[in-house]
Amino acid sequence: MYRERLEATPIRFHRQRREVCFIVKEQRLRHEVEQPVIVPWESLMAWAVEGYGATQYGTTRQYGLGIGYAHPKTGKWLKSEGLTPGMALSLGEWEVLRAYMEYELHSLDEVQDPLGLRAPGDPPHQGVHTIRNARRKLHNSLRERPSFWRYLYAVGWYFIHALSLWTLPGYLAEREHRNIQRQRPQYKLPEVEEWSKPLPKEQWAKPSEELVRLSAEVRRIHQHDPQQSIEEVFAEAYRRQGVEA
Predict the structure, then answer these.
(1) Which of 107, 123, 139, 181 is the 20 to 30 Å CA partner of 27?
(2) Which residues lie across from 132 on neighbouring strands?
(3) pLDDT in tens, 141-172
């Protein structure tokens, strides 16, 4: 898994171009070659999946987020899927990507829980700061809502972290992150780096009229009935605009 992370090339989202860059590995002359594939943002399809399985310990569930696209040259359908801890997180990951591309979101700090384990200004990866934030959150809860069970939980928390050598897991996580970042430059493709550069504002791509209409319709339906599920909201918006999903 560590080698896979070192060699993995992330998907790039360029909101000024309104394009997405995937890296496809192809076999050429018995060698694996990485080929960038750039597709329009609005041509992507995304889905959240939920799977069930049976093991000797009982029924298990798995969740994931998938993104699919058609190769611009060959028309071949390609996809990328990743596991997530839950269905809400699958939908949330896509919503963060969508909001970023539509200029509704500009940084991770805007979607992080201020009471969680990542404080404003912290790096996005896990590390020593994660453990320190958890400790601070634990002490705040003891001061604000002291109880026997909270103190018992605090004793267990310190005991478990003492067994795991306190902040050592955080230092190891930060070391792994630095190693991955040092290895990444050798996997960068010149054409992708050129594509990733920012554009002058007058060259920024605009959303299509169809997307603007659908987005406005989704907002109207949601404002009229905030309790309606997001799946029903989008289905109704497509139906009203005469668009076939």
Answers:
(1) 181
(2) none
(3) 899 999 999 999 999 999 999 999 999 999 99
